[in-house]
Write a structure and sequence with these properties.
single chain; alpha/beta; Rossmann fold; Beta-Lactamase; Alpha-Beta Plaits; eight-stranded mixed sheet; five-stranded parallel sheet; disordered N terminus
């Protein structure tokens, strides 16, 4: 189904014919292709993939079925690459024009069950996208499959290539689906040897599973956890599945994790089991919610949560904003501004949704997005930070194109905060909106506003940073009390791109030393360290801010200094 955003972009006057003229070259390859896809940013990636093969030429794009049908008649392409998320669904379009037409359709399907239906309706082939294919990785993960499929459909592919592609697609799709699942999946053979473990199982079992083939059932589930091993052996012996067993799993760190465990027999020869599949679901969120509700003592909130009208959650909340948008809007004609804004919002929305984010609202050029509601994610904070990084990558892609077309380049700031909120539907019956209410919402907005004075692309709070794995480079940048908050907030900068010039490691060490001395009230020593930072990295606005504070506080030291700077405005 076509998204509301795509409808908005199309109906608000975005000229896709002009887009075709600007983006596509004038040279025509022997085989012509038409792309039907509701996502403008993914369309650009598909164009990049297809243009890598000189035997193809993209002659047009369409974001809805009406535009697609018109371009099919006008352009008469050799093949149509159709996304099943088009308005009315790609399969419905195939049902009308696919089975008995002269056109060849290749469908991009978001779910495996779409394949059979699409082929019956006349699709020449189906490519399964799999959940989570992202802007940055789609060329690497799906580029070869897309090109090989089109070559085969158009009669320019060998039988050997077809066989290799079929095996590759089947294996890649299965592995991708298993590793994308939040449910832990382990395959054991009849002797209890581990044959496969997906990413979620490695996380849930706290590193007990590192590689397949090097562990057995008793190694993974030993001691008090051996009850799971007993259930697995029983299923292998009896070939009878066990579903939704409630088991408290003891971690190596001394904690407990509530698991819902299902064990399924793997079919073998003559009806005997050849092993077992173990499914692990972490029920910690459900257990925590129950405990929170019991502790609140508020009958009103508890009843609302039970009715589904509002629930406690701890999502990561993201705010983004275009810098200097007011001056930009004053310097551009309204139609050009709206076209640029719609294109920007399309890129950002694609990236957020691909990371399972929920777009709460658009506030002019600003975006508020939620990660962890309505449904909790594997790691809400990491999903939000990944979305921030990929939004900046998508912005670079957009700015490259804008630069070629002589359009203004955009800069954005991104702020993320994580904390407890109430999530639910708000508003009158005829205008309800799913949103969240709580201090973290205001905090995330304030943090985004601080990206400009601190010279940061991405700022996050301490709760978000604490939930992240170590692979994200960042630095603790300040401790502040933002406007509208009573508690101090530790700010961290995610270093999207390390500054050029200078010694990065020495720069970070000097800044960390200066910040600690400043927080300890040793303003003179702190100023000395921060002066070195500014000399080494003149573009470091955060160091300049702390240096200025140190100098002012040296002249008039506060008697009750706690290392927290009070912000009197939204931007410091």
């Amino acid at each position: 189904m076509e998204s509301n955003l795509s409808v908005y972009v199309y109906s608000s006057g975005y000229d896709f014919a002009e887009y075709n003229r600007d983006v596509f070259g004038v040279e025509w390859a022997p085989k012509t292709l038409l792309i039907g896809n509701p996502s403008t940013v993914m369309t650009d990636r598909l164009i990049e993939i297809i243009k890598s093969d000189p035997d193809f030429s993209v002659v047009g794009v369409a974001t809805n079925t009406q535009a697609l049908w018109k371009q099919m008649q006008d352009l008469k392409p050799d093949c149509i690459l159709l996304d099943d998320e088009m308005s009315g669904s790609g399969c419905e379009f195939l049902g009308r024009f696919g089975a008995h037409s002269r056109w060849k359709f290749v469908l991009l399907a978001s779910a495996p069950e779409v394949r059979t239906r699409a082929l019956r309706l006349g699709a020449a082939d189906v490519i399964e996208k799999g959940k989570g294919w992202v802007i940055k990785e789609v060329k690497a993960t799906h580029g070869a499959v897309i090109v090989q499929t089109l070559r085969r459909v158009l009669g320019i592919q060998s039988a050997a290539d077809r066989a290799a592609e079929a095996a590759m697609c089947a294996t890649a799709a299965l592995l991708h689906a298993l590793n994308a699942s939040p449910i832990g999946v382990l395959f054991f053979d009849v002797g209890g040897g581990l044959r496969f473990a997906n990413n979620a199982s490695r996380c849930l079992l706290s590193g007990r599973v590192r590689e397949s083939g090097a562990h057995c059932l008793n190694d993974i589930f030993d001691g008090i956890n051996s009850v799971i091993a007993v259930e697995v052996r029983e299923v292998i012996a009896s070939s009878v599945a066990r579903h939704d067993l409630k088991i408290e799993y003891a971690t190596d760190a001394g904690g407990w994790v509530p698991f819902a465990v299902s064990v399924l027999p793997t079919p073998g020869n003559q009806g005997h089991s050849s092993g077992a599949t173990v499914l692990l679901k972490d029920e910690s969120i459900e257990r925590t919610l129950e405990e929170i509700l019991r502790q609140t003592g508020s009958a009103t909130v508890t009843e609302a949560a039970i009715r589904g009208e509002g629930v406690f959650a701890e999502p990561a909340i993201l705010f983004s904003d275009i810098r200097r948008f007011t001056s930009l809007s004053e310097s551009m004609p309204p139609e050009a501004l709206l076209k640029l804004l719609n294109r920007y919002l399309s890129y950002m929305a694609d990236t957020i949704l691909r990371r399972d984010g929920h777009i709460d609202k658009y506030i002019g050029d600003a975006i508020m997005a939620l990660f962890g509601v309505p449904q909790n994610l594997k790691c809400n904070a990491e999903s939000a930070v990944c979305a921030c990084i990929e939004m900046l990558e998508a912005l670079e892609f957009l700015n490259d194109e804008s630069g070629r077309l002589g359009q203004p380049l955009l800069e954005i700031g991104l702020g993320v905060a994580t904390g407890p909120v109430i999530a639910g539907n708000v508003g009158p019956l005829n205008r309800r909106n799913f949103t969240v209410i709580g201090d973290p919402v205001n905090l995330a907005s304030r943090i985004e506003g601080l990206t400009k004075p601190y010279g940061a692309r991405i700022l996050i709070d301490g709760n978000t940073f604490a939930a992240l794995p170590d692979k994200y480079p960042g630095r603790r940048i300040d401790v502040v009390q933002v406007k509208g908050q009573n508690k101090p907030t530790t700010l961290y900068e995610i270093l999207y791109q390390l500054p050029t010039g200078g010694d990065t490691e020495r720069w970070l060490d000097l800044y960390g030393n200066g910040l600690r001395l400043y927080e300890a009230g040793q303003f003179s020593k702190g100023a000395s360290e921060l002066e070195k930072v500014v000399q080494l990295m003149p573009s470091d606005k955060a160091a300049a801010i702390l240096l200025d504070r140190c100098r002012k506080l040296m002249a008039s030291p506060p008697p009750d200094w706690q290392g927290v700077w009070r912000m009197d405005s939204k931007e410091g």
